[in-house]
From TrEMBL:
It comes from the Bacteria. It comes from Flavivirga rizhaonensis. Keywords: Transferase. GO terms for molecular function: glycosyltransferase activity. It holds the Pfam family Glycos_transf_1. This is Glycosyltransferase family 4 protein. Residues 193-350 form the Glycosyl transferase family domain. InterPro entries: Glyco_trans_1. PANTHER family: GLYCOSYLTRANSFERASE.
Length: 374
């Protein structure tokens, strides 16, 4: 069986990129499975996560301007080249299954290329705010056309793979399947939960709302100056500059440290005593699974659809009213000052995350691919 994954790039650190690398590395263990990754904008860079050497990686070298909409004039001009390059390559590979993570132009025309293959659109972000904008936001003629086009296109895929049951209500097609992300590693080690260190990680972008975490930390630091917060991630330079300005204005330079994204995040988590997430929206954040796998309690805003599908409130973590900075600060202080609570939550976290074992999750994918493992 030949499997092709399509995405824009695999050189930037992110949840979708990490999940993709985990899946293809798992699939290469089957001698009768050939795995390909087709990118459109790899720009000659190496993958940010380990990819098994058996995986064939092909880049179409479509130089879209990433800072502009794909419907901008400069990017629209490049769409025909994208179509013909992808079509030629798929016809050459002759895949049995094509799975796309992309939201570029290929998302719209992929169902019509190499029709013999199973086509799967894989979603890695929540549609909550997409739906909010669709219902209450822009009513422009162009937007309405795009929404209708999306609905039409999704019906043309064999399956739309989503991460949680909560996301089903945002799709008009009846071909949705729910498959959560898998955790490929369950470390033997667990955090001692003794270090006075809190950790957070993710793309440095406004959607992660690290400014709320900094604001909450400012409240925390008024009564507790012994603990430090480490934030790991790469991303938007202007947003990073704003975050550093907030840290400086609050005189928190000695307790908040923003560091580069790392492939050793497990090691960093083992050094921390709990994890905090302040995202505006999430769908199924891998970073929470990774934190829980080393026995870290979680504190997270109860943002739409994501964390509540992973965290059991008051069992392995705390779900805080979305965007309530004062409540977040109170929860952080509670976790700092109560080691027995950290130990209880951490133990439960390590147990609850086992339901996302790769063997359980990847079996669902293999069934979707109609692959007979025997």
């Amino acid at each position: 069986m030949r499997l092709v994954y399509i995405t824009d790039q695999i050189y930037l650190h992110g949840g979708a990129e990490r999940v993709l690398s985990n899946k293809v590395n798992y699939l290469t263990a089957f001698n009768t499975v050939e795995v390909y990754i087709i990118t459109s904008q790899q720009d000659g860079q190496k993958p940010c996560y380990h990819i098994d050497s058996k995986v064939v990686i092909k880049d179409l070298d479509i130089k879209y301007v990433r800072t502009e909409s794909y419907f901008s004039v400069s990017n629209l001009r490049k769409a025909p080249a994208h179509y013909f390059k992808l079509s030629r390559l798929l016809n050459k590979i002759k895949p049995d299954v094509v799975i796309t993570l992309s939201s570029q132009f290929d998302y719209y025309y992929l169902p019509y290329i190499h029709r013999k293959s199973i086509k799967i659109k894989e979603f890695h972000s929540s549609r909550h705010y997409y739906q909010e904008i669709r219902q209450h936001g822009s009513n422009s003629f162009l937007k309405k056309i795009i929404y209708k086009l999306n609905d039409f296109t999704e019906k043309k895929y064999s399956f739309n793979a989503i991460l949680t049951d909560d996301e089903k209500k945002y799709f008009k097609s009846d071909n949705t399947v729910v498959i959560p992300n898998a955790l490929t590693r369950f470390p033997d080690d667990s955090s001692s939960l003794k270090n006075k260190k809190v950790i957070s990680a993710g793309r440095i972008a406004p959607v992660k709302r690290f400014e709320d975490l900094i604001s909450a930390w400012k409240i925390v630091a008024e009564t507790n100056k012994e603990w430090v917060l480490e934030i790991y991630g790469n991303g938007e330079g202007s947003y990073l500059k704003d975050l550093k300005k907030l840290i400086n204005e609050a005189s928190l330079q000695k307790s908040i440290f923003i560091k580069e994204a790392t492939n050793e995040i497990e090691k960093k988590m083992l050094e921390a005593s709990f994890y905090v997430m302040t995202s505006e929206t999430e769908c199924f954040p891998m970073v929470l699974l990774e934190a829980m796998s080393v026995g870290l309690p979680i504190i997270s805003f109860d943002c739409p659809n994501g964390p509540k599908n992973i965290i059991t409130n008051h069992s392995d973590g705390l779900l805080i009213e979305n965007k309530n900075i004062n409540a977040l600060a109170e929860a952080i202080l509670l976790m700092m000052n109560n080691k027995s609570l950290r130990e209880k939550f951490g133990k439960n976290a390590k147990l609850s995350v086992k339901k996302y074992d790769k063997e359980i999750i990847m079996k669902k994918w293999l069934e979707l691919f109609k692959y007979n493992q025997s």
